[in-house]
Specification:
By secondary structure, this protein is an alpha+beta fold. It has four helices and eight strands; from the N terminus they run ββααααββββββ. Helix content is 34%, strand content 31%. A hairpin with a 2-residue loop joins β1 and β2. α1 packs antiparallel against α4. It holds the Pfam family PIG-H.
């Protein structure tokens, strides 16, 4: 989805997002539901890791809140205790790693192009994970040699993409490289 914002008479911001537009309450509710599912999965992984720690190192009972938060006897039947006792350690490690990766992976990408008349262009790409920051690059007008609109074929469709030839660089800068593919 492409959105265009004209903040001043000399700037234009183009943003491409692979996520759905947040226009209806249903879309917003599904985003909050996904956030809640990620939080619950994170709590599950923490409970699993704490239960694993207590199982391996015999948790001291004097830690405030830990003895009430995690059951230490096999009489308690919760999912983290069952996983700690029933599954081998390598399955538990794989499950915790996969769940953590799913928690921190973004469901969509955003790329933007800010055109500032007389100064240059700024490209920005969001990271695929919540753990990393976005990548931003500013290209001054004096360094821009040329701008091309290319055609690319993907299957039976034609995709158009914008590329900028920058002075003293071998490769061209492709604007919106992830959403164009």
């Amino acid at each position: 989805m492409l959105t265009t914002k004209r903040q001043t008479s000399t700037t234009v911001l183009y943003t491409v997002s692979t996520g759905p537009p947040v226009l209806s309450w249903g879309t917003r509710a599904s985003q909050y539901g996904l956030l809640l599912a990620r939080l619950l999965a994170g709590i599950f992984v923490l409970a699993l890791l704490l239960n694993e720690y207590c199982h391996a190192f015999r948790c001291p009972q004097n830690l405030p809140g830990l003895s009430s938060a995690l059951p230490t006897s096999p009489a308690h039947h919760n999912l983290a205790a069952w996983l700690t006792h029933a599954l081998p350690w390598y399955y538990r490690a794989l499950l915790a790693t996969a769940t953590t990766w799913l928690i921190f992976t973004k469901s969509h990408l955003e790329e933007s192009l800010l055109v500032i008349r007389g100064l240059g262009v700024q490209t920005s790409t969001s990271s695929p994970s919540y753990l990393w920051t976005s990548t931003t690059r500013f290209i001054p007008t004096s360094s821009i040699q040329d701008i091309f609109i290319h055609e690319a074929f993907r299957g039976f469709e034609v995709r158009y993409y914008l590329s900028i030839v920058v002075e003293d660089e071998e490769d061209v800068v492709v604007v919106f490289p992830y959403t164009a593919s």
